[in-house]
Every structure is written in structure tokens, then in C-alpha cells.
Amino acid sequence: MSPLRIAFLHPDLGIGGAERLVVDAALGLQNLGHTVDLYTSHHDPTHCFEETRDGTLHIHHVVPPFPRSIRGKFHILFAHARQLHLTLHLLLRGGPSYDVYFVDQLSTCIPFLRTFGKTRVVFYCHFPDKLLANGEFVEGKFAKMKGGILKRLYRIPMDWVEELTTRQADIILANSKFTSQVFQTYFRSIPRVPRVVYPGINISAYETAVDWSDPDIVQVISDRPTLLSLNRFEKKKNVALALAAFAQMKTGSTRFVIGGGYDHRLEDNIQTLAALVRTAELHSLTFNIITPASSNTPIPPFKCQLVEPDILFVLNFTTGQRSALLTSSSTLCLLYTPANEHFGIVPVEGMLCGLPVLACDSGGPTESILDSPESERTGWLCRPDAAVWADVLSKIVALSKEEREALSERAKSRAKTLFGMQTMARDIEDALQEASTLGPVEGMAILVLI
Prior knowledge:
The protein is of the alpha/beta class.
């Protein structure tokens, strides 16, 4: 097979699971000999994955003339506008042509890329936006549109555009069986079943020696027994569940490190951190809040305890900090709190590093984590109840050396076999190659929008 020229379109190259997937997919495809360019409407070098700022990947940051929102409203409308601006730049810039486009999160651009770019498109569905807009999705319950009459009227055309443009992708991928099933339920006009391509991780990145003298790493590592949570500071991620469980089971010098992406421009991030701080204070737990030396994120003015806090909040952790926390011998467990998560790459990262993982018994983690039989266990899947989690955490902390080592080997093996970056890259490569062999795009797909 000949190498492909591939253009990725991703709305915001920040720090998150979707961004990690895009970065690892691009890296994997580059390693397979393909040429990859990433186009985005937002890329902050102080709030991104290192591969997007150190020259490893070729990033095209096209600054849009539109805001993210107006007074916290109209997010999806401006997201559509920003992506169309990015698409216009890509199609009119007079630069290199591509064999195929890889689009994720927003599907607005698909008919334009096919009609005016005359190029096939592979769309990767993380989760339908029409469901994300309604807040937390509960498996098994048909989602009804939430909000007042104005929001409902506003969402009708937005949801229609999402389904219509998604339908025009040449190949549709999904990040889990869970997402694929939800897609089929809520996008009823699309007869195709999305092909599942699990997110993969760069295994070698976790096998690189950690520089334990790095000041950023020194400030997060401790000899104290450590419980770890890595997630964005968003309410829907429900880190409060893990904090409440920690408060119930805390014994001796055990500490809890909560790290994740934090954007001081986003009200949800600000309020979520504040709520976690209030919860810590309610349980008389001390805390500190830190950022890497390279970060320009302002630390909110809470009353922190700088020495030996019970809880350490790490805003916008570096790759080195993440690896150090996941591989430290003092880290006893990784807690992953979102319910009905679309996939969840963090549990896979934990398993790859040999950590026991505690997650909710719904969504993507039920596909990545093995809870039973006990002889094959790589983690625990429990209902989101703080008392239940506290009980399980006590058992995990009390694991014998032999039990911990056996579970660690099982977890590493499962992560490497099913969720490696090479496996994901090969699966995405197959889809891109298939799309590119479909031939030129004929007709005016854009007419279906009129």
C-alpha cells in the first residue's frame, strides 16, 4: 500500500481524552510511513500535549474570528462556525492536497470537504453531541431534550445538522461498542453500524525512564501511599465520588492526588475545582493546588496547606508528571469516576502501568477493565456509590505483594494486547486506505443541506 497524505481536523488541541486519541493516532500513522497534518482552531502551547508543540507533529493552528461562546451560551453554534472557518482555510489555502481526511468530534465540515475538496472522509465518533448537550447520559434511559423552550428550539437545527453531516462520511468509526450502540439508537437515519476502533496509547511513552529529579515531578511524588485520579476538572467527570470515598476510607498517611486538564476560561472547570475544595474542607481534609513550572494557569486563591496535604490538586499535569504518578511504587490505585463514559483512555493507561483500576460499572470501562473472574481481574467495576468505593479501596490498599504483582501483570498484558497505539493506528489506517480507494467523490453532497 502506498503512503497516504492525511489531514486531521480537530476543534481544540488541548488536554483531554479525545485530544490524546488524535495525537496518538497521528503519531501511529506517521510511524507507519504516512504524511499527517493536523488542523485545529485552538492550540495553546502552554495547555497541550508535548507532541503538538515540540515539532513531533505538524500543527496548523488557524485562529477563528469567532468566540467560543457569548456569556456561556451558543457553544455548539460557534463550534460549527469555527470549524467551517477552519475548513474554508483548508480548502482555499492553495496548499497540499490530501488523499483522505480524518475528522472527529464535529461533523459539520464533512459535506464541504467531500464536495469542494473532492476527497473522502473518515469520521471518528467519540459520542453524539446531541446527547452531550443534555448533560450526563444514562445508559438504558432514552435521553430527552433538556432545558427551556428556547434551548430546545436552538438544539433542533443543531442536532439535525449533526446527524445529516455525519451521515455523509464515507466511513464511520466509534471509540467503543457502547458508543456504537448509542449511535445506532439516536442516529436512526444512518443505517450503517460504526466500526469500533478502540483508542490506543503510546506504550513506549510509559516505558521511558522517568527523570525523578525533574522539579515538576519532585513536587507531585511522595513516599506516602497514594491514590490517583486523572481527569478533566468537569462536573460530569464526578471526581467528587472518589474524593468522598477517600474521605471515608482514609487511614494513616494515605494521600489522594487529583490531576487533570484545567482551563481558567471555562466556568465548568472553575466551579468543579471550587466544589472539590469545598468537599475537602467539609471532610476536614487538607489540600494544595499546584501547576507545572511551564504553565501560565493562574491558581485560584484558596487556603492551601503546602506541606504534606491530604489532597494534591495538579492542574494541567505534564507528560512526565503523569508517567511518574502512574509508575511510582507508592501509587496503589487509579480511580476513574465518570459513569457511562464513552470509552475512557485513563483506565487503559493505569492498566498499562500495572495499577489496579477502580471505575464505574457502565460505559466504555466495562470493555477495557476485567472485573471477573477474580483470576483474570485487572480492576474493579462498581456502581457510583461512595460507601461502595470506600470499601473496595480498602481492599485494594490491603492487597498483598503477590496479589498486586499478579494483577499488575494481567493488566499490563491486556492493555498492550488490545489497546496499544499500533493496534489503533493499523485499524485507522485500514479505514483510511479503504476510503481512499473509493475513488473521486461524485456529485454535490452539499446540496442535501439546502
